[in-house]
Amino acid sequence: DVNKLILTDLALLVRDYPKAHNVSWLSINFKTLLLWDPKPTNYSYTVEYSVIGQNRKKNQHCIRTMETECDLSNSLVDLKAIYSSDVLSNPYFASERFTPYNDTLIGRPEFKLEMSKDKRKITLYVEDPLTALFNEQNQQRTIRDVFADELQYKVTFGKATSTGKVSSKGRVIKMAGDIDPGVSYCFNMQAYIPSRSTDKQLGELSQRQCSPGNDKSVFEGKDTNNAKELNPQPWCCKHHALPSEPQGIIVSQ
């Protein structure tokens, strides 16, 4: 009868579906996903998000979804705001707070290495990583477009016999001593945002590149056989943070 149908419908409404767990943010270069478990079977999830203290919103692609991730890259417009998100089934589960500007991971930069004709100066040309963000002209933004003057790069470099000290003004690094002709110098680079908390200041480490040694060509870090040949001993690392500009970073006497 009608009463039994109503009771059946109510039972379905209050059914205790498995709640979402392991809710976490994954953000690289402002490509921001909300992830959770488990995979639904006969139910779905709806994601709600908000700036702390403001009304909650829904992402149109994450309403009654059968997926276990939601792309919120274009929804988190204010990059410096603090966000929270809920994954709704019955019951719902809340995420940790997330601020894109402070929490997104910065991917590895690409850089080009050049040595001067006299073999006494090495210049590194940095290419800022692209983000998942676009400007009003629908052009993809780089991490420099977002962080501006806060963006720096940390450069790690050295050679097997290096004992020199490192000093810097602006974007120029100088080694105390000549750059030895025929000796290979190796470099790694990563983005550095000093305004962030210590555990989130550094981006992903680039591939290692080395300058020519004994007439050998420049190679990238994956070529480990050449790396061992050019630097048979463990090479000593020097660290320094510096602003990056398109003109490059100079390592010289």
UniProtKB/TrEMBL annotation:
Signal peptide: none annotated. SUPFAM superfamilies: Fibronectin type III (SSF49265). Its main location: membrane. InterPro entries: FN3_dom (IPR003961), FN3_sf (IPR036116), Ig-like_fold (IPR013783), Interferon/interleukin_rcp_dom (IPR015373), Tissue_factor (IPR001187), Type-II_Cytokine-TF_Rcpt (IPR050650). GO terms for cellular component: plasma membrane. The keyword Membrane applies. Keywords: Blood coagulation, Disulfide bond, Glycoprotein, Hemostasis, Lipoprotein, Membrane, Palmitate, Signal, Transmembrane, Transmembrane helix. Residues 14-89 form the Fibronectin type-III domain. GO terms for biological process: blood coagulation. Residues 104-210 form the Interferon/interleukin receptor domain. It is a single-pass type I membrane protein. It is found in: Membrane. GO terms for molecular function: cytokine receptor activity. Belongs to the tissue factor family. Interacts with HSPE; the interaction, inhibited by heparin, promotes the generation of activated factor X and activates coagulation in the presence of activated factor VII. Initiates blood coagulation by forming a complex with circulating factor VII or VIIa. The [TF:VIIa] complex activates factors IX or X by specific limited proteolysis. TF plays a role in normal hemostasis by initiating the cell-surface assembly and propagation of the coagulation protease cascade. PANTHER family: INTERFERON/INTERLEUKIN RECEPTOR, TISSUE FACTOR. This is Tissue factor. It comes from Salmo trutta (Brown trout). The lineage of its organism: Eukaryota, Metazoa, Chordata, Craniata, Vertebrata.
